[in-house]
From TrEMBL:
This is Fumarate reductase/succinate dehydrogenase flavoprotein subunit. The keyword Membrane does not apply. Keywords: Flavoprotein, Oxidoreductase. Residues 67-478 form the FAD-dependent oxidoreductase 2 FAD-binding domain. Coiled coil: none annotated. Residues 539-673 form the Fumarate reductase/succinate dehydrogenase flavoprotein-like C-terminal domain. Pfam families: FAD_binding_2, Succ_DH_flav_C. Gene3D superfamilies: FAD/NAD(P)-binding domain (3.50.50.60), Fumarate reductase/succinate dehydrogenase flavoprotein-like, C-terminal domain (1.20.58.100), Succinate dehydrogenase/fumarate reductase flavoprotein, catalytic domain (3.90.700.10).
Length: 674
C-alpha cells in the first residue's frame, strides 16, 4: 500500500507518549496510567480469532439463569438483544422512544462499509483497517480497528440473510459506492435509507426473540442511574416516561448501547431526544469517559437558517460521490444565482487543494475547509448573523454525465428531502451545505472485550470510544454498531458471564436503595427550584458556548473562557431552572431538565479534555497546532494516548488516566490526502 509498510504486529513501532505541555494545569488531577487488561498480542490478523477461542463458554442451561440489561435499541443495542436472546440469555431491552424502530440509527443515510472487494479495486481487510486508523488520525486502538474490519465482511451476509434490500447492480450483485477518506468502493447502501433498512433487520431479529420469550421490551423508559454493588454493575434505575414511576431493574450484566452525545451542542444532526444521560450516570458511578472532546463535524448538512432552529438536517455523505463542492472565487459573486456564475469564476476548492481525493476527503478536512471558505467571505446563501454559512454542492455535471433519471435513482429521496426543507429544486439549482455536529468519537472507555472500567458494565456502538480515534470515516458508524451487537459483544460478554450464575441481589439491598433514592431526590430538586428559565433555554446557551469555543476550531484562550462560562451556567441552572408539571405523569420538561444537567457537566469535561490536548488531530483542531498550509498537526511524542477521565466528585477535579497507543501493524504518519 502506497506510503505504508506492512508489519507483522509483533514489534512496537512507536514509543509511549510523554506529555510536556500542560495547558489544562489546575483543571484536572493526574491519575495512574491505564492499561487494557485484556488487550490481545501476536500477529494482528490472528488476535480476534485467538481471543474468541480463548474466551470461556457458557453452556445453554446456565444461559437461562443469567439476566442481561441492554439500554438502547439502535443497531448496536437491537443486534445485541437479538443475538443474546437467540443464545438463550434473559434480556431486558430499554429505550426511551415509543418503539425500538425510532432509535436514531434509523436516520443514517449513505451506507455501511465492508471489505468485500466486490469491485476488485484493491480493497481488503487490511486496507479497511489502514483507512480507518489513518482516517481517525492515529488515535484509535489498532487491535479494535482490525477486528472491526475483519468482522465487517460477516455483517453484509447477516443483513442480506435478514432481507435488507441493499442496492444491486444490473446483474444482481450487491452494489458499492465510495465514501470520504478512501479510494475504493466498499460502501453498501439502500438508496439514502440504509440506516432505516438495517435497523428494521435488527428490530425484526429482536422481535423474534421477544416472541420467543428471551427478550422483554421496555419502551418509553429512560435509564437515570446505574446500580453498582461492590464495584460491579448489577442493574439500572429507570423512569417510566408515561406514568412517571421510578422502577428498579436488576441483572447480572448491563450493556449500554445508548448512542452519542452530539446534542451537547444543541444544534446537531442528532434526533432531539439523543442525550448523554445513560453514559454520564455510569461515568459518575466510576466508568471512565474517554476522549470526550473528539466530536465530528459533518460537512454535508443543510445550513442554519435562523435562531428559531433546534435541529439540523444531515444530507448523506454519499452525495459527495457525484456532487462537486464549490464557492465563488470572488466575494462579490456570492449574491448571484449560482447558475449565472461562470465556470471560470468557481472555486472547486477540495479538488484544488486535495487532488488525489477531491470531494471525498475525510469529514473533518471537508468541514474545516468549508468553514475557511466562509470565513474568507465567500460563503453562499442568506446572511445568518454576520456572514453567509453555506457552500454549493452541485450535481449539474453528474446530471449531464449520467442523466437525471440515474441521479434520481441513486439519490432521489435525499433530493426530495432537501427540496421539502429548503423549497429549492436540487436538480436545477445547486444544494447549499454547511458543516454541523454529527457523530462523537469519544465515549465511555472500554477494554478489548467492550467492558468499561466498572466490571459487568459493557458499552457498544457510539456510546464507547474504541474504534474511530479522532475522526470517523463515513459509513463506519453502522459497521461498528452491527459489529459490536452481532459479533463482538456476544463473544466477549460470555467470558464474563461464564463466572455465573451470580449471587442475586434484591430491591432492598443498600446499593439498590441508594441508587433509587438518588434518582428520586434529583427529580424532586428539579421540580422544587421553581426559577424562571426553561431547561431548553439553558441547553441553547450551552450549545452556543460549545460551538463557539469547542467546535470546529479550539484555542487555549477560548477553551478557558468556555470553562468559566459553563461553570457560571451550571450555577445559574441549579438556582433558576423552571420545570413545569409533576413527577407522576408524562413530563417532557422534567425529562429535558435531567438531560441538560448532564450535558452541562459533560460540556465542561469536553473543554478540559480539549484544553489538555495541545495538538490537532481529526475533528480536534487547536489553532496553536497547524502546518503552514493550515492542516492539522499532531504531536505523537506527547499525545499518542487515550485520555480516560475519572469522575472527581461533585466539587472535585476530574482525574486523567492515560492509555498509551502503541502501534505494531501501521506506522504513524502525518495524514495527507493531497
Amino acid at each position: 500500500m502506497a506510503g505504508s509498510t506492512l508489519h507483522d504486529g509483533s514489534t512496537p513501532l512507536n514509543d509511549a507518549a510523554r506529555q510536556t505541555s500542560d495547558d489544562a494545569h489546575g483543571y484536572y488531577i493526574a491519575g495512574e496510567p491505564l492499561v487494557d487488561p485484556v488487550a490481545p498480542t501476536g500477529p494482528i490478523a490472528d488476535r480476534w480469532t485467538t481471543r474468541r477461542f480463548e474466551n470461556r463458554l457458557v453452556n445453554p442451561s446456565n444461559r437461562r439463569k443469567l439476566d442481561v440489561i441492554i439500554v438502547g435499541t439502535g443497531l448496536a443495542g437491537g443486534a445485541a438483544a437479538a443475538t443474546l436472546g437467540e443464545a438463550g440469555y434473559n434480556v431486558k431491552s430499554f429505550c426511551y422512544q415509543d418503539s425500538p424502530r425510532r432509535a436514531h440509527s434509523i436516520a443514517a443515510q449513505g451506507g455501511i462499509n465492508a471489505a468485500k472487494n466486490y469491485k476488485e479495486d484493491g480493497d481488503s481487510v487490511f486496507r479497511l483497517f489502514y483507512d480507518t486508523v489513518k482516517g481517525g488520525d492515529y488515535r484509535s486502538r489498532e487491535s479494535n480497528v482490525y477486528r472491526l474490519a475483519e468482522v465487517s465482511t460477516n455483517i453484509i451476509d447477516q443483513c442480506v440473510a435478514q432481507g435488507v434490500p441493499f442496492a444491486r447492480e444490473y446483474g444482481g450483485l450487491l452494489d458499492n459506492r465510495s465514501f470520504g477518506g478512501v479510494q475504493v468502493s466498499r460502501t453498501f447502501y439502500a438508496r439514502g435509507q440504509t440506516g432505516q433498512q438495517l435497523l428494521l433487520g435488527a428490530y425484526q431479529a429482536m422481535e423474534r426473540q421477544v416472541a420467543a420469550g428471551t427478550v422483554t421490551q421496555y419502551t418509553r423508559h429512560e435509564m437515570l442511574e446505574l446500580i453498582v454493588k461492590d464495584g460491579v454493575a448489577r442493574g439500572i434505575i429507570a423512569r417510566n416516561l408515561m406514568t412517571g414511576e421510578v422502577e428498579t431493574h436488576l441483572a447480572d450484566a448491563v450493556v449500554l448501547a445508548s448512542g452519542g452525545y452530539g446534542n451537547v451542542f444543541f444544534l446537531s444532526t442528532n434526533a432531539m431526544g439523543c442525550n448523554v444521560t445513560a453514559t454520564w450516570r455510569a461515568h459518575r458511578k466510576g466508568a471512565y469517559m474517554a476522549n470526550p472532546s473528539f466530536t465530528q463535524i459533518h460537512p454535508t448538512c443543510i445550513p442554519v437558517s435562523g435562531e428559531h432552529q433546534s435541529k439540523l438536517t444531515l444530507m448523506s455523505e454519499s452525495l459527495r460521490n457525484d456532487g462537486r463542492i464549490w464557492v465563488p472565487k470572488k466575494a462579490e459573486d456570492c449574491d448571484k444565482d449560482p447558475r449565472d456564475i461562470a465556470e471560470a469564476d468557481r472555486d472547486y476548492y477540495l479538488e484544488r487543494i486535495y487532488p488525489s481525493f477531491g470531494n471525498l476527503v475525510p469529514r473533518d478536512i471537508a468541514s474545516r475547509q468549508a468553514k475557511n471558505m466562509c470565513d474568507e467571505g465567500r460563503g453562499v446563501g442568506p446572511m445568518v448573523g454576520d456572514f453567509r454559512r453555506g457552500v454549493y454542492l452541485d450535481f449539474s455535471d453528474a446530471i449531464e454525465r449520467m442523466g437525471e433519471d440515474t441521479v434520481r435513482e441513486k439519490y432521489g429521496n435525499l433530493f426530495d428531502m432537501y427540496e421539502r426543507i429548503t423549497g429549492e429544486n436540487p436538480y436545477q439549482v445547486p444544494m447549499r451545505i454547511y458543516p454541523a455536529v454529527h457523530y462523537v468519537m469519544g465515549g465511555l472507555w472500554v477494554d478489548y472485550h467492550l467492558q468499561s472500567s466498572i466490571p459487568g458494565l459493557f458499552v457498544t456502538g457510539e456510546a464507547n470510544f474504541s474504534d474511530h480515534g479522532a475522526n470517523r470515516l463515513g459509513a463506519s458508524a453502522l459497521m461498528q454498531g452491527l459489529a459490536d451487537g452481532y459479533f463482538v459483544l456476544p463473544n466477549t460478554i460470555r467470558d464474563y458471564l461464564a463466572d455465573g450464575p451470580f449471587t442475586k441481589i434484591t430491591e432492598d439491598d443498600e446499593a439498590v436503595v441508594e441508587a433509587r433514592r438518588s434518582v428520586e431526590k434529583r427529580i424532586d430538586t428539579f421540580l422544587s427550584i421553581n426559577g424562571s428559565r426553561s431547561a431548553d433555554s439553558y441547553h441553547r446557551e450551552l450549545g452556543h458556548i460549545m460551538w463557539e469555543f469547542c467546535g470546529m476550531e479550539r484555542s487555549e484562550e477560548g477553551l478557558r473562557k468556555a470553562i468559566d462560562m459553563i461553570r457560571e451556567l451550571k450555577k445559574d441552572f441549579w438556582t433558576d431552572l423552571k420545570v413545569l408539571g409533576t413527577a407522576d405523569s408524562l413530563n417532557q420538561s422534567l425529562e429535558k431538565a435531567g438531560r441538560v444537567a448532564d450535558f452541562i457537566e459533560l460540556g465542561e469535561l469536553m473543554c478540559i479534555d480539549a484544553l489538555n490536548r495541545r495538538e490537532s488531530c481529526g475533528g480536534h483542531f487547536r489553532v496553536e497546532s497547524q502546518t503552514d498550509e493550515g492542516e492539522a498537526l499532531r504531536h505523537d511524542e506527547e499525545f499518542a494516548y487515550v485520555a480516560a477521565w475519572e469522575f472527581g466528585g461533585e466539587d472535585g477535579s476530574p482525574v486523567l488516566h492515560k492509555e498509551d497507543l502503541i502501534y505494531t501493524a501501521i506506522e504513524m504518519k502525518q495524514r495527507s490526502y493531497k
